[in-house]
Design a protein that fits this description.
210 residues, alpha+beta, Membrane-bound Lytic Murein Transglycosylase D, Chain A, two-stranded antiparallel sheet, 5 helices, 11 strands, rod-shaped, Bact_Kbp, LysM peptidoglycan-binding domain-containing protein, LysM, LysM_dom_sf
Amino acid sequence: MSFTLKDGSTSFVFPVNPEEVNISRSKGYETINMLEHGEFDFAQGEKVKEITFSSFFPKVYDPSYCMDEKYFLDPRVALNVLNNFLISKQPMRFIISGTGVNVPVFLISLNSSFRGGEPGDIYFDVTLRTWRDSKVEKMGSGATGSKASSRTDLKKSSKTYTVKAGDSLSKIAKFELGNSSKWNEIYKLNTKIIGSDPNRIKPGQKLVMP
């Protein structure tokens, strides 16, 4: 098993495999507070994963725990390679051979330390974050099949009724609302159209229904 960071044609193999690798996964949520109903959580998909591990760059090559000698670098040189990865604005690829880990990442954190009694060795902790291409889909106002056109319209469209000859508000209320006594509800919504006399409705008038 080997741990590799690949930046284009440059491959950096960690000389000593870490004892443990932590991969953090979580799901994103947006919490919305609605008056009178409290809080609601809406799932937003998987969050970006973080990969963390610790190891060291040995000063002296030891085949009992080091990778192939061709990957061995002076600790200061190796640390400088990681520093360059840290400031890079381009994603790299992180690969753990023999596993399913082969993902584009950014190196977002690098901590190094020296220990007494081990001169020349450099210990380090790294944090990688998986990278996703943030492509924004252009949506034309009249595009067929666009996300905008497929969005559910939460606005209720008002129902209307066109007055016919011989109609009255009580007759309309009977047939449309199932109760002739609800004529006053229709009148309240359409006072500007009907006027001051609820008995004087005219054919062709469009009345908004409750």
